[in-house]
Specification:
disordered N terminus; six-stranded antiparallel β-sheet; five-stranded antiparallel β-sheet; Beta-Lactamase; 30% helix; alpha+beta; 2 domains
């Protein structure tokens, strides 16, 4: 889809729905977008006079299906087109949205364009996906009632993925802005003792604050830890996954496999969900800690 040419003053900028209007012409150029697109971290000008295209925001794993449904709707436009997919936020995170698109006709009944509304359904989707994961894992898995159990449950959920058997959860120390290791599974005592705290100026923290997950072989990651003794951990496919909640950097999930050279795509999709759940969990724990005037303890 092409860039737009103008913004429309009658779009509902104060509503939760973000509205795009596409012109009926070759390429479906963007005619207007509501100002409240800023809730996703982007500005109107990014689309209308910048180099940002709407498809640039769609998660690569969702893009083919998005195009397929839009093409089918264009060929047989009965009713509204409703679909769900993930879009990229400015901070590098992805959020689930629900799209509702319908055709705009002029007074003569000819197609004039498309009107698309986008609604953030991330919390709803996370809940539904979590319940699905819970069903797959079995009835013995339950989200914790007590906060002290939360990190244990998150680690257990993560290491039940197909290839993941090593996991470390770090949270941001709000005083010094470094990362505190609060829970882990499958790591050696040497690793835990050496990296129970990551300084705010350390390379892993700087990488995580960029907002994008990194998937590498462990041999490519351990030099970033600046300790050659970590070379013999016996890990293979490894990921450093930043955790955000409401655009706020709150922690890091480091996961690894002892058997797979790279972490498979199926596990990466599940880790994307777990990362979001971790953000909600850490935010909840932070609220409890503040109310109790406590701080995180090192695992």
């Amino acid at each position: 889809m092409m860039k737009g040419i103008a913004n429309s003053p009658d779009l509902p900028d104060n509503m939760l729905e973000v509205v795009f209007v596409w012109r009926f012409e070759d390429g479906w150029s963007l005619e207007s977008v509501s100002d409240n697109v800023s809730i996703f971290g982007h500005e109107v000008e990014d689309f209308l006079i910048g180099d940002l295209f709407y498809e640039d925001l769609i998660h690569p794993a969702d893009l083919a299906n998005f195009r397929k449904k839009l093409r089918e709707y264009s060929d047989n436009s009965e009713g509204d087109l409703i679909q769900e997919y993930r879009i990229l936020m400015l901070d590098g995170d992805y959020r689930w949205v629900r799209e509702n698109t319908h055709i705009i006709y002029d007074k003569d009944g000819c197609i004039q364009g498309l009107r698309t509304t986008i609604v953030d359904i991330n919390d709803e989707k996370q809940h539904d996906d979590f319940m699905s994961i819970q069903d797959e894992l079995g009835s013995d898995f339950n989200w914790p009632v007590y906060l002290e159990e939360s990190t244990n449950i998150l680690i257990e959920l993560t290491t039940r993925l197909e290839a993941i058997d090593i996991c470390a959860l770090y949270v941001v120390d709000e005083v010094n802005k470094g990362l505190v290791l609060v829970n882990h599974k499958g790591l050696s005592t040497n690793f835990v003792n050496s990296f129970s705290y990551l300084d705010v100026n350390s390379i892993p923290v700087e990488i995580a604050k960029k907002g994008f997950p990194i998937y590498m072989h462990y041999s490519e990651i351990y030099p970033l830890l600046t300790d050659s003794s970590m070379e013999e951990e016996g890990l293979q496919g490894t990921a450093i996954i930043p955790i955000y909640h409401k655009h706020h950097f709150v922690g890091v999930l480091i996961v690894s496999s002892s058997s797979e050279f790279i972490i498979p795509e199926g596990d990466r999709d599940d880790l994307d969900l777990i990362k979001s759940l971790a953000g909600l969990m850490i935010s909840t724990i932070e609220m409890a800690i503040m109310s109790d005037d406590m701080r995180y303890g090192v695992a």
